[in-house]
Structure formats: structure tokens, C-alpha cells
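Problem: given the chain below (492 residues), write out its structure.
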Amino acid sequence: MTAIGLIIILTQILPSVGYYPKEDTEYVQHFKPQAEEVILQNILEEEAGEGILVLENFEETLSRGKQITAEQVLVESETLAAKDASGTIGALKVLPRALQNINWLELVLALGTILIIYGFKRITKTIPSTLVALVIMSGIAVAFGLEYRTIEAIPTGIPKINFEIFSGFSLGSITPYIFTALTLSLLGAIDSLLTSVVADNMTKTKHKPNKELVGQGVGNSIAALFGGIPGAGATIRTVVNINAGGKTKLSGMIAGVMLLIIMLLFADVASKIPAAVLAGILITVGIGVMDYKGLKAIPSLPRDIKLGPLRLSSEVLIMLIVLGLSTFWDLIYAVGIGLIIASLMFMKKIGDLTAERSNVKLLKEESWSDEIIFPKELKKKVFIKHIKGPLFFGSTSEFQQLSLQIPSTAKLVIMRLGRMQYMDQSGLYAMEDMLQELKKNGVEVLFVNLLKQPRYMMERIDIIPDFIPKNRIFTSFEDSISWIKKSMKENR
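Solution.
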């Protein structure tokens, strides 16, 4: 989440100050030699494709080379300049030039948008402040006839269906593209599921992967009929939608319908939106989407690994690796690499813990032997939950459903944690969310036999004593029963 925020902010700095690399003549000139090479390379590839490239005779090549115009070289140079300045690394590379060539009107439009977005939220949240900022700043720019940069022109109308897909179909025509199609489908699936996980984190919901991917497949199939290219769930646009208040399936459908209406009826009006206003909106999205909860926890996480003279936290190390790779390389690959590193570190930790507690055996889900003596009159009011393994990123999904398992008659939960040897940061936050939900529902929680590492983690972010006071933590199940009996007598 933090990487997504940084990507948005860094890539929107240039348009917010009105700097576009392909329009910087001095910067574009640096790519002129490379542009000439690219054009010449394209000529050679064309001749090879036409079967007229002869190594002993380059007359045709020289003839075509003489037809290259200065305008062609300039266009290719601008394309290369824009490509070089794209992405986060490119944006940082040209940032000094951007700051030397600030377009003050564009900067004012971007800053005005940001101020309205944050200021209007203090007045009311009924109307999305993003929409208000968009309308106000775009209206000012148009009404006063300011010379600003607009967003890219929006295409109008709906393309015709290509029926040749069916009439001209043959197995031989698709065979060369099967591997490419599988690759695209895999990348699209990963991207969509990653977007769904981001949305889950922001809305505290749980997506259905199968429905998500089937829907994506149906959409891509229909788009192909109109000559569209395959797409996937867009993380940034999803975040913008959620921040604007859209948190249901209906919001995504409305967004699609609105885009269709704009494309058909209001494309000319929408094309007048200042690019700087859009950049300002996206910068606020980037600021809002960052995981401040995770960043604030960095100083308090245990430093459990040693690199030379330095002691570091494995959680922080993984976070920084994924943050760096996501921001400056590729989000999907970063998640995969981070997951592999986290899995390896987790296996080592569990191996160490297993070595320390090698006499521990897994228990079945039925009641434990010491629970046979549990008073019958308390069974409806007290719910006992066994945590029989580490609480980590791979097991948080089921743990988060704990509140749904508790009977409506239960007003107290005993969590037996003697088998929970380890808890990572994901598990810690899952525990915190669960305790918040139970507290909101008026359910009290007791901990029994809480081990050293999980207790340390919960004390570092004040789950203990904010949610679980120290007098609600017991070393044995019998002690917890005694406390419950005493407490009930006092409340009579």
C-alpha cells in the first residue's frame, strides 16, 4: 500500500508542476542520436520482412535512409524522452529539470485542488471532496480562459463489432498466440487479485477470487469483439473509487456506466479538465493510500535478525524490500519476492520454535481434557477458542472470522493461547481487529497461557493493556474459571 502511494505521488509531481519531458527542447535533443538509430533499425527490420535486405548491397537501405526527415527524428526523440522520464525512476531523474521549469499556473491549479479536497472534508463528507475540487478548479480554469494543459482527448462513440473473429476463425490463426494469451491471463489474474486484496484492506471485506476472475474474463472477451485489448483490475482507480466513498459492487458498475455516458455525450466537456487538477487529485490519493499504521509500527517491532554488527527486524526488512522493489521496479514481482522471503524467514522461525518445543503435538478441535470440569451454567455465556499454531500472514483469514463463530448468548471469550508459539505483524493486526470487533459488540476477552513472543508483540502496540488488561491474562485455565465465577457473583 505504501509503495502504491509513493508510485502515485512520484509520477504525478511532473504534471502537477506543468513539466512534460517531450516538450523540453533541450532535454529532447539528447535523444536525437538514439532516435536516428531506432529509425534506421526500423528500416532494416522492414527490409528484412520484405525480403529485400542484401548484406552485399545496401542501396535500398541508403535510399530509404535519405528519406528520413528532421520531423521524423524529432518525433522519435520526443517519444524516447517521454519513455525515459516515465515511471518513478524516470520522474526522479528529470525532477531537477522540472523544478527549474515550473509552470506556475499548473502548480496553482494542482495545489488548489489539493487544498479543496482536504478542506471540504472538514465541512461535509456527504459529497465526495474529490468531485467538488474537480468541478471548482476546472470551472475556474475554463471560466477565466486560462492557458492550461488539458488531459488527453477522450475518444467518442463505440467501435463496431468485428464479426470476422467468428466468420474468419481458424485454429491455425490462434495457435501462435496461445502462449502469449496464457501469459497475459496469468498476469491479469495476479494483478486483479492483488487489487482485490488492496480493496479488502481498505474496506475490511473479503473478496471472492473465482467471481473476480470470471468477471474479468467475461469483460475481456466482450472487449475483444470491439478490438479492445485485455485489461485487469486497476489498483489505483480502485483506490480512488474507495476514497470517494464507493465500497460496494454497485459503485464499480456505476463508474463503468458513467464512463460510457461521458464517452458518448460529454467527451468534449471532460477533455477540458486541466491535467494539473487530475494530478492534484491523484497526489491526495497517493497520500491517503499509504499504510501509516504499518510505518508507525516500525520502531516498535522486535529486532530478531543480526547482520554483522546491526540488529534488524525481519518484518521491517521485508517491508522495505517490497517497498523498494514495488516503487522502482514492478509491483507484482515485488509482492512475489516479498512473499518468498517472508516464507523463508517464517520457516526458519517456526523451525527454531519447534526445536524449543519439540514435545508439542497438534490437538483436535474438540474440548481439551481440563475443560470437562467447565461449569454447565456458564456454557451459554462463555465461548472457548483454541489457537493451536502460529498466527501469521497465512492463517489470518480464518482467524478474522472468529467473531462470526461466537454464539449470540456469549458475553465472554476465553482464548487459549498456549499453542500459539509465534505471531507476525499480519497476525498482530488481525488480533487487534478481532478484539476491536468483540469490544464493539460488548464481548469481554480473557487470555490463557499467553506465550512470550506473542505477548511481546501485543505489548509493543498496546493491545496489552488497552484491549486486554493484565488482570485478564491467566497462566492456567482453572484460574480463568475462578475469575469468571467471582466476577459473576460480584455482578449479581
